[in-house]
Every structure is written in structure tokens, then in C-alpha cells.
Design goal:
Arc Repressor Mutant, subunit A, 3-stranded antiparallel sheet, 7 helices, globular
């Protein structure tokens, strides 16, 4: 299942790391292909179960991302969701319309500015979001189970540093206790 709602950011590899058809006989640059591939495979498996659940109801990863953040922040403004996901209005529009039409998300006008659109999960949407998150949580817990006590903090730090610095500063730390 393709991730079609990604807004690409130009990344230029250092000249020494560029490998193209012209230099295919040249030795490979000193890149950590093992970690790169582990990241690909970890992501593939992290989203596999949710992808199956979503596919059964005609949804994909874009629906999952929207529903996740709407569930985590009820009352989220559409403009804030666009910024969080780094997607265009056009790509959000189709996905959001399906989630609203199928009864997973509700949209209301803002209290002060009626032009604002505020999003919240319906009960049906909350159940789906928690089911998907539960599957991913189980995978994370299994992966973290054998780590020492401070292992979770190391993993959290690593993942945080994988996020570009500017967006990382704007992320809201959400309390997992809110999910009960």
C-alpha cells in the first residue's frame, strides 16, 4: 500500500554517498544499509496489521494518520492537522470526506471563527483508532520487553531525533494516560 500523501522534501546526499548507474562498478559508500533496511522492515511490520484492518473497510494509511491525530486531539483544527501531517488540502479533503461520510469523524465550526473547521472522532472513530493503536502498542511492547529499564527512554530519544528539528519543536507531547 503506497503512502501517497507524503509531501517530499528535497534531500541531497553528499557527493561521496551518491551512487548511480555510471558508477555501479565503484565500491559502495560507507552507509549503514543494515539500519536503513531495519527501519524499512520495522515500519512495514508496524503498519501491517492496521493496514489489513483498514483495507477491510476501504481505508488506507492516510485514513489511519488522520484518525489517529483527530482521536488524540479532539477539537483539532483542520489547518493544524494539515501542518502536522505535512499534506495538501486536496489530499486531506478526500480522506476526511470519507471519514466523515462513514461516521468516523465529525466536523464542527469553530466557536469564535465559524470558518474554522474543528475535528473530533465519533464513538465509532474512537473505537477504530484505539483498535489500530492497540495493535501497534502490542508490537512496540513486545520489541521493548527485553530492554533494560531505561531502554524505552533511549528508543523515544532515538525516534525523536529522527524527526526534522523544526517540526519536532512543534510536536505536542500527549499523555498516554488520556487513553483510558
Amino acid at each position: 500500500m503506497a503512502d501517497v500523501n507524503f509531501v517530499p522534501r528535497p534531500v541531497v546526499a553528499p557527493a561521496a554517498a551518491r551512487v548511480g548507474p555510471a558508477d555501479s562498478a565503484a565500491p559502495l559508500p560507507d552507509l549503514d544499509f543494515e539500519l536503513i533496511e531495519l527501519m524499512f522492515f520495522a515500519y512495514r511490520d508496524f503498519v501491517a496489521e492496521p493496514d489489513q484492518t483498514l483495507a477491510a473497510i476501504g481505508f488506507g494509511r492516510a485514513h489511519h494518520r488522520v484518525l489517529h491525530f483527530v482521536n488524540r486531539q479532539p477539537g483539532l483544527r483542520v489547518t493544524d492537522l494539515l501542518e502536522t501531517l505535512r499534506i495538501t488540502k486536496q489530499s486531506l479533503g478526500r480522506v476526511l470526506k470519507q471519514l466523515i461520510d462513514d461516521g468516523y469523524v465529525e466536523q464542527t465550526p469553530g466557536a469564535v471563527d465559524r470558518r474554522e473547521r474543528l475535528l473530533a472522532p465519533t464513538e465509532k472513530g474512537r473505537r477504530l483508532a484505539l483498535d489500530l493503536a492497540g495493535r501497534q502498542h502490542a508490537r512496540l511492547e513486545a520489541a521493548l520487553a527485553d530492554l533494560p529499564a531505561e531502554g524505552r527512554d533511549h528508543v523515544r530519544g532515538f525516534l525523536s531525533r529522527m524527526i526534522d528539528p523544526a517540526p519536532r519543536a512543534g510536536l505536542v507531547a500527549l499523555d498516554p494516560a488520556e487513553e483510558s
